[in-house]
Write a structure and sequence with these properties.
The complex is a heterodimer of chains A (293) and B (169). In chain A, helix 2 links the parallel strand 2 and strand 3. Chain A has 13 helices and 14 strands. In chain A, helix 12 runs antiparallel to helix 13. In chain B, 30% of the residues lie in helices and 16% in strands. Classes of the chains: A alpha+beta (293), B alpha+beta (169). Chains A and B meet through strand 1, helix 2 and helix 6 of A and strand 4 of B. The structure holds FE2/S2 (inorganic) cluster (2 copies).
Chain lengths: 293, 169
């Protein structure tokens, strides 16, 4: 038995919004692989829960009227990895969420939960930052869209109003078109582990594959919230596809990131692997995009 | 607050059943206490060890971090479903015995239900893929190698490939 005060189950988004207003103290639970564990640990013991897990309308991946990729917030990690739209346009996201926990966790864990808990180590977070995803929130006044960067306020806190739930994650066409990316998770174990550092890079090359038109890079665990490395991105834009570019791109990330010492790894170690991961991810992305390096 | 109950109707091991459950119950609680399906083990109860693993609508889930009320309308399978009406073990269960993949047996039902999901996909997985697919389970006894062999051999046998020469090693 879980030590919960009450459970309210929403069958639709409207019902979830109504329950949010009626029970302002209640915690939202999606797949529960964080919330139920925290409840078991006593951190959320005695709380009321609003379960949105039964809202099937919030599951699945589609292409919307603006040709953007729309991922329902309750889509599980394993369904994202297997989805043909994701595999075609944003394969790196499927690869990144395939590194969360273990197989059973990937069947229950949802992309919405992974972003709403505001944790810097979430495996989806760096890729969603690097692809400039938009978070869709639905509340009593309708739908609100927030760039993922602004959605993360500080460690463990995201921009959800008291009457809202997150309903989808959107990757605009401008962001995925002609773009290829790679994610590296550095962790102590290959399974059931939390990232020491996560790095996601993607590039769009010129038609002749000789120039980097756009490079984007984001990290998890390089700061209190997932973050982009903007000086590295600025540096790489318009540069030729070469090992010198890759080398300097790696060096630039140290101007942007701010990792800390923790029991998992020291700041110095995180800085060291951040450079290496940036370079490897960039080389891999360039190759995926058809460039030679 | 007064205790909250809900009627939950679902299919368990091929049979449609309903019962009133306390909304605070996990699916492990419901399967063990209401349906006496004690192959579903309570190990860590925080989704780390896989001892409570069952198949829901074709996918493996740790039932300890799954609310019992979410089972409404679902098709759930536990290890008990694998035994034939005559009481014979299934091939994967027999393989665990043949390969000495069981010592205390506490992790076994969970591992076998993940193996069922793997085997039912009908795919031929590489060793690395198999290891990754089995990585959501902890075993304190066997050292995993025999479990891996039991699953791999059953996969190959079902695919009619057990005579593969590299397997003899
Ligand atoms: S008891 Fe459920 S994962 Fe350990
Ligand atoms: S056989 Fe004892 S835990 Fe696996």
């Amino acid at each position: 038995m879980y030590d919960m005060k009450a459970l309210y189950e929403a069958g639709s988004v409207e019902e979830a919004v109504r329950l949010r207003i009626e029970h302002p103290e209640a915690q939202i639970i999606a797949g529960g692989s964080d919330v139920l564990v925290q409840m078991r640990e006593g951190k959320r013991a005695g709380k009321e829960l609003i379960s949105i897990y039964g809202i099937d309308a919030m599951r699945g991946v589609s292409i919307d009227e603006n040709e953007a990729i729309r991922i329902g917030s309750l889509t599980s990690f394993s369904h994202i990895t297997r989805d043909p739209i994701i595999q075609k346009y944003c394969n790196v996201l499927g690869e990144a969420v395939d590194m969360v926990g273990g197989p059973q966790i990937r069947n229950i864990g949802t992309i919405g939960g992974n972003t709403c808990n505001g944790v810097t180590s979430a495996d989806s977070a760096s890729t969603l930052h690097a692809w400039e995803a938009i978070v869709e929130l639905t509340g009593s006044n309708g739908v609100r869209r927030v760039p993922i960067k602004e959605f993360y306020i500080k460690a463990g806190q995201v921009d959800i109003k008291p009457d809202e739930i997150q309903t989808a994650i959107i990757i605009p066409k401008e962001s995925y078109e002609g773009t290829y990316g790679h994610y590296i998770k550095y962790a102590m174990r290959n399974a059931m582990d939390i990232a020491t550092l996560g790095c996601s890079v993607n590039v769009r090359l010129s038609a002749d594959k000789k120039t980097i038109e756009r490079a984007r890079i984001a990290y998890g665990v390089a700061g209190p919230v997932p973050m982009r490395a903007e000086s590295a991105e600025r540096y790489a834009a318009g540069k030729s596809v070469s090992l010198e570019t890759v080398e300097q791109f790696g060096a630039e990330v140290l101007n942007d990131i701010n990792p800390r010492d923790s029991w998992r790894a020291s700041k110095a170690f995180r800085q060291h692997i951040a450079v290496e991961m940036a370079k490897r991810c960039l080389v891999c992305s360039i190759k995926l995009a058809g460039g030679e390096i | 607050m007064a205790q909250q109950y809900k009627l939950v109707t679902c299919t368990i091991n091929g049979k449609e059943v309903s019962t009133m459950v306390d909304v605070r119950a996990s699916l492990t609680d419901m399967l063990r206490n209401d349906y006496r399906l004690t192959s579903v083990k309570k190990g860590c109860e925080v989704g780390e060890c896989g001892a409570c693993n069952v198949i829901i609508d074709g996918e493996a889930f740790n039932s300890c971090i799954y609310l019992a009320v979410w089972a409404e309308g679902k098709n759930i399978r536990t290890l008990e479903s694998l035994i034939s009406p005559e009481g014979e073990l299934s091939d994967i269960q027999q393989a665990f015995i043949d390969e000495t993949a069981i010592q205390c047996g506490f992790c076994t039902p969970g591992f076998i239900m993940t193996a069922v999901e793997i085997l039912e996909s009908g795919k031929h997985y590489s060793d690395d893929e198999l290891r990754k697919l089995l990585s959501g389970h902890l075993c304190r006894c066997t050292g995993y190698e025999n479990i891996f062999k039991a699953v791999k051999k059953t996969m190959l046998r079902r695919l009619g490939k057990l005579d593969d020469p590299f397997l003899k090693a």
